[in-house]
Specification:
Distance between the termini: 21 Å
Strand content: under 5%
Shape: globular
Order of helices and strands: HHHHHH
Helix content: over 70%
Radius of gyration: 18 Å
Number of helices: 6
Length: 144
Amino acid sequence: MNGNGGWLVLVGRILLCSIFLMSGANKIFRWSSTAAYMKSEGMFAVPFFLLMAILFEVAGGLMVLLGFRGKLGAWLLIVFLIPTTLIFHDFWTLEGQEAQMQRIQFMKNLAILGGLCVVAAHGSGRYSLDARSTGPRRDEAPSR
């Protein structure tokens, strides 16, 4: 990647993972209300799934942010986001304004999934811990 492309990938990773890191922290500090909401949506084994959600969001978010095993981090977030989207943004079961709001949230999650697929396919880019561990890139001249 030449020019500013490396910086754009970094900015993209920061923006992409910020929602997961904020959401994971919110779940930690608002465990009871999050658990109640999950239960109201028909979830079972709420403590287990809430803990797994926190782990996937925080671990995956940090991995993407830092570019440390970024592809794996993106896959963790993809695996988290697919069932979350289907369970909590089921606009097809609703009507009126609530259906419209959940459709927007559903589509937002699809857009986020698209960004995560790009990271899963192409990695974390030049400005990442992954790039530091692999040495000079083919499109960069080695330092002498």
